[in-house]
Design a protein that fits this description.
By secondary structure, this protein is an alpha+beta fold. The protein has two domains: 11-236, no CATH class; 366-501, Jelly Rolls (Sandwich), CATH 2.60.120.1050. The protein has 13 helices and 17 strands. A six-stranded mixed beta sheet has the order 1-5-6-4-3-2. The longest helix has 21 residues, at 127-147. It is elongated and about 80 Å long. 52% of the residues are buried.
Length: 503
């Protein structure tokens, strides 16, 4: 669930009474009593600001999840306030006015029940819009649970009338939201799995969402339903990949909607120096990083995302693997996550060559640009601080005096030691539009050299991509990264040299 100025609400809410007070990371230990109290107060203030539309880009998804998990640490008055924030629209009127103010109607399919009102500002424009919303939700269920074989949402007992998934239509656009799916009934077989319900905007009016209503409906439905799927696996997983995979799922269900393209400038393609696994309370990096899962699925099949989520699934008291562990465990034998990340960051500099719809995306920008010529053949540079799961790029263009087809470019990289998982790639765009990507093999000290053809007739440019692919963390420290860990290999230095070798 996010403000409409950033588009695509993606809210996950956990129930007022059913969920344990624990750390939100998959590897998190329960905090101390004083830590729980402080976290509870912060969670309440954060959720209150977001739901009041005062978050200015803050994400309500995990804010509300954290609030629900913090309930046991809140005092009576604060708990009442939090419970009201987490209520269903059909629950009694609350101090925020979020409940329906008219009797609700209900219509059901075999798996889903739709709830709406026929008057007040929460009323959809017509019965036809209710039917359209139901049809979209049925398509989402058929795609994600049926065709893609993800786990179905857990049944919620008799909440909303019976055990089927409840979807409520409400004017949440007035709050700057697209919709949300809320978790409330914990599974009897694992305290990390839960059932829930969804709330979607009642009309997705273009005046509120700045997109065709059906496009906003499809993107939100596919995204939010996948959160319900995630909660049936492990609702406490790392926030960044919950949101990145849900945004990726929009593309898998409704490929033509393309609403998720608007987030790409906020992720690693637009901002390569932001860690892949960073969850931003203020910002949209986690939504803009869905191309990472597009990269994975293009190379290994889209089933790899399901395999990773299955590896992260909780079983009893076992919370399963956290995000990066689960992704690496799902990779084919002999393939490592640092290698995948290296290739992914290289692909981002020329997306039209490596992604099916990449010609609609702006490439990852180079941080440095160089020109080598016959008279001035050598240029170099240094990046002093490349953090974990980020990259920097340097672009080089062949200049005057390099027309001979035998001209070459020698690239030398000097990076950190191998235990920090450095990576380097050279991406070459030819004058005819062809693009080639080559990995630069680094030795144990992080040093490597590559020589390629580089004349100014056939070659348009080359981009050197330097990646810090480290996945080493000291977990359970309350950070916004994987396993809420402190990265062990941030601020790594890389230097490079471009040397033209005229023919």
């Amino acid at each position: 669930m996010r403000p409409t100025q950033l588009i695509a609400a993606v809210t996950l809410v956990l129930s007022a009474t059913a969920l344990p007070a624990v750390s939100t990371s998959a590897a998190g230990d329960p905090p101390t009593v004083s830590g729980r109290e402080a976290a509870g107060d912060r969670a309440l203030r954060h959720a209150d600001a977001v739901l009041d539309g005062l978050g200015h880009g803050q994400d309500a998804t995990l804010a509300l999840r954290d609030l629900a998990q913090a309930l046991p640490s809140l005092g009576p008055a604060e708990r009442r306030q939090a419970t009201a924030m987490l209520a269903r629209p059909t629950d009694p009127h609350d101090q925020f006015g979020d409940s329906y103010r008219a009797p609700a109607k209900r219509a059901c399919s075999p798996n889903i029940c739709m709830h709406w009102v026929t008057r007040t500002s929460d009323a959809p424009p017509s019965r036809a819009w209710v039917s359209r919303t139901m049809d979209v939700m049925k398509q989402v269920w058929a795609r994600e649970v049926g065709a893609m074989n993800y786990r179905r949402p857990l049944r919620d007992g008799h909440r909303g009338g019976d055990g089927r998934l409840d979807v409520y239509l409400k004017d949440v656009g007035a709050q700057g939201l697209f919709g949300y799916c809320a978790t409330e009934r914990r599974s009897q077989i694992s305290k990390w799995k839960a059932s829930g319900y969804c709330v979607l905007d009642d009309d997705f009016a273009r005046s509120q969402f700045h997109a065709p209503p059906t496009v906003s409906l499809k993107a939100t439905a596919a995204h939010e339903f996948f959160h319900e799927v995630q909660f049936a696996l492990d609702f406490s997983e790392d926030a960044w990949w919950m949101e990145a995979t849900a945004t990726w799922m929009e593309e898998q269900v409704f490929d033509g909607a393309n609403d998720n393209r608007r987030y790409i400038p906020f992720g690693q393609i637009g901002v390569p120096n932001t860690p892949l696994d960073e969850f931003q309370d203020v910002g949209s990096a986690q939504y803009g990083n869905w191309p990472f899962f597009e990269h994975l699925s293009r190379h290994f099949g889209r089933e790899i995302v399901r395999s990773a989520w299955q590896g992260a699934a909780a079983a009893g008291d076992d919370r399963g693997l956290y995000s990066l562990q689960a992704i690496e465990a799902a990779l084919p034998t002999g393939t490592t996550l640092p290698e995948v990340f290296r290739d992914y960051t290289a692909a981002n500099t020329e997306p039209s060559a490596f992604y099916p719809e990449g010609d609609h995306w702006d490439p990852a920008p180079p941080a440095q640009k160089q020109v080598v010529t016959k008279a001035d053949p050598e240029k170099g540079g240094r990046f002093a601080k490349i953090d974990h799961l980020t990259s920097r790029a340097a672009r080089v263009v062949p200049g005057s005096g390099l027309a001979d087809p035998a001209s070459q470019l020698e690239v030398t990289v000097d990076g950190p030691g191998s235990r920090t998982s450095p990576g380097a790639s050279l991406v070459i765009r030819m004058a005819n539009g062809d693009v080639n990507r080559q990995a630069i093999v680094l030795n144990g000290k992080g040093v490597g050299t590559l020589t390629v053809g580089f004349d100014n007739v056939d070659v348009e440019r080359a981009t050197l991509v330097l990646a810090n692919a480290s996945t080493r963390f000291d977990c359970r420290n309350g950070t916004p990264y994987s396993c809420r860990g402190i990265p062990l290999d941030d601020n790594e230095a890389f230097s490079y040299t471009f040397k033209a070798l005229p023919g």
